[in-house]
Structure to design on (275 residues):
């Protein structure tokens, strides 16, 4: 079956900085994929090339069976690619409802009542119904992160790209987000989630990739990737003994494949940017 998203031979560099080098990635319909990698690895740049915000130097982006490499971002959004931004970018002076309504109408192509209904449903799903009439600029970090997800969802995506939506949140807030992403997945939406809060990813994804220096250095089930010596070296600069695994098992039990869901990478280096 043709993958929903297919990246082939993507190259991108900024001067000497290589953010993608002959990068290939296939994401199936309804699949949930996690991406980890050190700061500056090229993770957000990869999303930008998928969503149409950044033009690759070479390579091809295919979505839903069509080559979208030269299509602008708004067309890719209409085709079903929804995304969040690492640093939330709501229209600060507009209400939460208006922000999501813009996504449903401009991004999702809905009109009138249909757009309003979509916006209301997404706000309820994202736990923002109570904040619908608040100005987006007045939201807390958790609410801003939820609004990012809501704006992405309101476009009616087949693929949702999440860029560090858990960064900076408290543990209970992260768990709320994991539940929300679980509901999105259950609707058949494919998810690609870049995240430094690895235990959230492990609970949510079928497959984990590690990006470093513009290349995927590991790709497989989350437990295997998190035990990969190259991945450990990148994050800890030493062997597996550096990984802290709390004694108690978190609610929901261990992740498939035996990885402790509470296993986490060190203080997320990229989270500062998301604050
Ligand atoms: N528009 C740009 N112009 C020049 N350099 C850029 C641009 N965008 C990104 N870069 C550089 O490319 C590299 C990769 O950036 P990117 O934001 O994709 O990394 P990342 O993996 O998302 O990192 P983080 O975990 O910190 O979010 C960084 O060195 C960054 O400074
Ligand atoms: Mg980033």
């Amino acid at each position: 079956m043709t993958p929903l998203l297919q990246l082939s031979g993507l190259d991108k560099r900024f001067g000497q900085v290589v953010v993608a080098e002959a990068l290939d990635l296939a994401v199936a319909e309804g699949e949930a994929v996690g991406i980890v990698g050190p700061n500056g690895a090229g993770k957000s740049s990869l999303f930008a090339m998928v969503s149409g915000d950044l033009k690759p130097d070479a390579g091809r982006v295919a979505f839903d069976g069509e080559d979208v490499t030269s299509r602008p971002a708004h067309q890719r959004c209409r085709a079903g690619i929804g995304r969040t931004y690492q640093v939330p970018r709501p229209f600060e002076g507009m209400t939460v409802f208006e922000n999501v309504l813009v996504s449903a109408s401009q991004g999702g192509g809905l009109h009138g009542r249909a757009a309003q209904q979509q916006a209301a449903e997404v706000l309820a799903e994202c736990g923002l119904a109570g904040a619908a009439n608040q100005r987006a600029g007045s939201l807390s970090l958790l609410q801003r992160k939820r609004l990012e997800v809501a704006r992405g969802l309101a476009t009616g995506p087949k693929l949702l790209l999440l860029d560090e939506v858990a960064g900076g949140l408290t543990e209970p807030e992260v768990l709320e987000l994991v539940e929300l992403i679980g509901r999105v997945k259950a609707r058949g939406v494919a998810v690609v989630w870049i995240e430094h809060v690895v235990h959230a990813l492990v609970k949510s994804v079928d497959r984990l990739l590690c990006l470093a220096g513009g290349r995927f250095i590991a790709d497989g089930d989350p437990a295997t990737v998190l035990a990969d010596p190259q991945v450990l070296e990148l994050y800890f600069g030493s062997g597996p003994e550096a990984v802290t695994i709390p004694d108690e098992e978190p609610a929901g039990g261990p992740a498939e494949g035996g990885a402790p869901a509470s296993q986490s990478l060190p203080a997320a280096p990229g989270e500062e940017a998301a604050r």
